Amino acid sequence: MHWIFPRHSRGKRLWQSLDHNRTMFYAECSSDAALGPVSESEDSFADQGEITIKSRNDKTMESIPISVEGYEMVKRELANLKKERPAVIQAIKEAREEGDLSENAGYDAARERQGMLEAKITYIESRIPRFNIIDMNTLGGERVSFGATVEIEDVDTGDVKRYLLLGPDETAYCKGSISILSPVGRALLGKEIGDEAVVDAPRGKIHYEVLSIEFHGPAIEL
């Protein structure tokens, strides 16, 4: 696990409302959200310094960016999943005691839950050693990078959107955020105000102009 503390502090409030011609944006980040699976492929990201770590056998592994707060949320989720283990084991035991397992719906449901629980625990535990933990209080700059709140306009439609760029393991905790590994996130990384980002979408290429780039500090409320 590797900690990153980039650049200088730019502490501003995250809660923003745009004027009536623009999309309203509220980054609703809460500890009550659940950790979901990652849909984006994992790879490196721009302008964040060192992004690789070494495993015990000295093989380089791809690292995963995450905020300090996001890291705490993942650890909390993992702890909650592990706390659920005894109840699932007990449910399996009780279902077994009912007799014939071939037509025991309770047993099947408990075993299925156990499989899902263990798979999620294994998944999270495999990712934690690869985390690059980033202090959101120290982010800043003129280019889009991890932790930036970016306002973009669809060049063709004029629609304006506002996104907070976070790591793939923490966007489930923060409404209004997107992963830096998502198609839009990838396209925006490294861009400056006035630049155009092109996103490949099912309906064709979408061209976005970057209107603003801001860094507001921590986004997830623990």
TrEMBL record:
It holds the Pfam family GreA_GreB. Keywords: DNA-binding, Elongation factor, Protein biosynthesis, Transcription, Transcription regulation. The keyword DNA-binding applies. PANTHER family: TRANSCRIPTION ELONGATION FACTOR GREA. InterPro entries: GreA/GreB_C_sf (IPR036953), TF_GreA/GreB_CS (IPR018151), Tscrpt_elong_fac_GreA (IPR006359), Tscrpt_elong_fac_GreA/B (IPR028624), Tscrpt_elong_fac_GreA/B_C (IPR001437), Tscrpt_elong_fac_GreA/B_fam (IPR023459), Tscrpt_elong_fac_GreA/B_N (IPR022691), Tscrpt_elong_fac_GreA/B_N_sf (IPR036805). Residues 142-214 form the Transcription elongation factor GreA/GreB C-terminal domain. HAMAP family: GreA_GreB. Necessary for efficient RNA polymerase transcription elongation past template-encoded arresting sites. The arresting sites in DNA have the property of trapping a certain fraction of elongating RNA polymerases that pass through, resulting in locked ternary complexes. Cleavage of the nascent transcript by cleavage factors such as GreA or GreB allows the resumption of elongation from the new 3'terminus. GreA releases sequences of 2 to 3 nucleotides. GO terms for biological process: DNA-templated transcription elongation; regulation of DNA-templated transcription elongation. Residues 64-133 form the Transcription elongation factor GreA/GreB N-terminal domain. GO terms for molecular function: DNA binding; RNA polymerase binding; translation elongation factor activity. PROSITE patterns: GREAB_1 (PS00829), GREAB_2 (PS00830). Belongs to the GreA/GreB family. This is Transcription elongation factor GreA. It comes from Paucidesulfovibrio gracilis DSM 16080.
